[in-house]
Amino acid sequence: MRKAVSFILVVIIAIGIGLSLQEVPFGKTKSEVRKYCLEKGIEQTGATNIVTSVVVNYRGFDTLGEVTVLFLAAIGLSAILYREKEGERKNRRRSSLILYTGCKFLFPLILLFGAYIFIHGHLTPGGGFQGGAIVASGFLLVILGSRSWWGFNRSKMKITESLSGLIFVVVGLLGLLYGGHFLLNYLPKGIPNELFSAGIIPIIYIAIGFKVGSEITGIIDDMIRSG
Amino acid sequence: MEFIENYLYYIASFGLILIGLYIILIKKNLIKMIIGLSIMDTGVNILLISMGYLSGGTAPIFSRENLLPSRMVDPVPQALVLTAIVIGLAIIALALSLTIVLYRHYGTLNTRKIRDLKW
Amino acid sequence: MILEIILVFVMLIAAAAAGIFKDLLNAVIAVGFVSFIAAILFYFLQAPDVAMAEASIGAALTVAIFIIAIKKTKRFEEDEEGS
Fold first, then answer.
1. Which residue segment(s) compose the domain that A129 sits in?
2. Which of A36, A128, A212, C45 could form a disulfide with A205 if both were Cys (CB 3.0 to 4.6 A apart)?
3. pLDDT value of position B53
4. What is the chain A residue with the closest CA to C46?
5. pLDDT tens-digit series, residues B65-113
6. Which of A32-46, B10-24, C9-23, C59-73 has the least mean pLDDT?
7. Cβ pair C52:A219 closer than 8 A
8. C10-16, long-range: CB within 8 Å, 24+ apart, which pairs?
9. Within a domain: residue A146?
10. To probe the interface with A, which of C8, C56, C71, C72 has the most A CB atoms within 10 Å?
11. Nearest CB to C49: which of A51, A136, A219?
């Protein structure tokens, strides 16, 4: 009975969607915002990657909100999984020498790659969110591969996270001081396609990279330790 | 053939959304439900990106000199989806942590055996 | 175009398989496969930024979080008795 009702519901939704999608042709976008961002993007923000200028500059306040949602999710997760005593980890044995050496060798390379991704966010594809995720996957490799070596300081992670969030807000507030708008791009734009260009965009994206990386690492660490 | 060319990405995205919805409606295991949620998330992201596509367009990055702004795809949905993916990961982690606490309390993942969660 | 049709077909099959498998580990790996093919489709749709985010988060970190949660709970889905 339940299966039949669910199936009929899904079929009705599919028919409705199929009828309405005939009005929306594929590959012919008609958005006006697209034209504005693509034509004025370089001279207004100085970043050659227009997606970055939309994320950090045109929709910067929205990005601040999304970073806040991520922070709240991490806080809620550690509050839900909190226990008085640390959980006992079953079969806690040392990893083999090959695994340990491989992790130790790969970890700095992955961190370097993540840092490259989020520093060059305004020039090439990539940015704070992707670079932060790559950094977090490097930490995940260390957690899984060499758990006996895993003795890192959790409070340092929290401090990194809070500091990078604070940098985001302070840079935005300085814009309010200089020109009357929150997150105004007040630094010199520079020449497009150079590393030191685009004003405050690289600073904010590096802060987002640190924040996302430490936050996702914190989520994984909380889930593993929860016993 | 023309039909498939026009509607391939819509088929992909709504196929994923409907499969995810069906899994959520019909399964009783909590982790299976969250798997359905994750599949729906991917489908919505593909739909948003395909709405902003321009046939024969290039990525919205001025990496060379001779790229025309009128031949580029829409950057706004890409920026939306970029943040939505990260938020999706956080939401799934929150849901899984609630599942872990429920399993600790009730000793089962079946929603029919957990009181007050019957469908 | 043929490649895209094959990819979409395989992706939908993997999504359906994620619902069918009784072993939750297999289902989670099918979800990772769906995310991976979605990353390739984002690249075909001229969105390299989103493709990078989906490949690193959807295909790696989500699968890792699911596997941790399955290790803390139970691996096999129970048979459905009556509905």
1. 50-82+93-225
2. A128
3. 85
4. A125
5. 777 777 888 888 888 898 888 888 989 999 998 888 888 888 877 777 7
6. A32-46
7. no
8. C10/C37, C11/B12, C11/B16, C11/C37, C11/C38, C11/C41, C12/B12, C12/B15, C12/B16, C12/B19, C15/B15, C15/B16, C15/B19, C15/B20, C15/B39, C16/B19
9. yes
10. C56
11. A51
Q: What are phi and psi of B27, to 5 degrees?
A: -85, 155
For residues A51 and A145, the model is more confident at: A51
Residue A178 in any domain: the answer is yes
Contact of A125 with chain B, judged by CB distance below 8 Å, is answered with yes
Structural domains of chain A, count: 1
Residue A226: which of B60, B85, B100 has the nearest Cβ? B100
Supply A20's token pair.
């309405």
Instruction: Flag whether the ipTM exceeds 0.95.
Output: no
Q: How far apart are CA A74 and CA A85, in angstroms?
A: 20
Q: Is residue A10 part of a domain?
A: no
Within a domain: A54: yes
Q: What is the mean pLDDT of chain A?
A: 82
